[in-house]
Task: structure prediction
Amino acid sequence: MAIHQETWPAGTPVWVDLSVTDPDASRAFYADVLGWEFTPSGEQFGGYFMALVDGEPAAGLAPPMEGMEEDTHAWTTYLGTEDIEAVTQGVTDAGGTVVMPPMPLESLGSMAIYTDSTGAVFGGWQYGEHTGFNVYDSPGSVSWCEAMLGDFEAGQEFYAQVFGFTYEDMSSEGMKYAMFSVPGGERPAGGVGMVEGEQPYWSVTFNVPDTDAAIERATARGSQVLMEPYAFEFGRVAVITGPDGERFGVIEPPAEPAVSAG
Result:
């Protein structure tokens, strides 16, 4: 298990959370499928539960905000920043929209919700006591986040302007895709792809020790398999749904770490 307790370079995906209609059912589902434990939830945080992997923060679950109970449920990816007001201005300057303006959460930090210029929803997180994921490269932790954009070129330009993303194009015939890095980052921080015929979105994939076993546990609890498992150089991956229909990926890393070119 790898531990990272310092702040991540700005623009890195640092947190994911999910609004759920039945917190008890969702906690039971993710405890079974991903092995999560949960912190107690206090009223001051609106029923928010932090998921733990070996005692370290990994993700969050919360009941829906008042009036949003029937909204589509999806995992939200938060990109880290030292200055959320500057990010908010950058989002609007680059053609995005502010869904929820910056809101301080006591000493933990500040959050905001945006859409990029192609319509994908994402969050911003200004570091406080909570610096984001403390655990990675471990079962139950976030393995990869990616933006599936409505306009591949325009979306890349948006994140380059707001967060300084640079890209390594991985596109092939019939597929547009690139990995992105952030200033000061030591390795690719995530990916961007192209989606057509549906709402653009950010997706999250979680590390699991056995993809097929995770799918078996999930489907026993009513999950649907949206993308059947397949193997590639970075592991064996599938896309499934949670209790509210939210989609997410699970990936079993390869037995030996993939070696990138260069």
Notes: Confidence is low (pLDDT under 50) at residues 258-262. The radius of gyration is 17 Å. The helical segments are 23-34, 84-93, 152-163, 211-220.
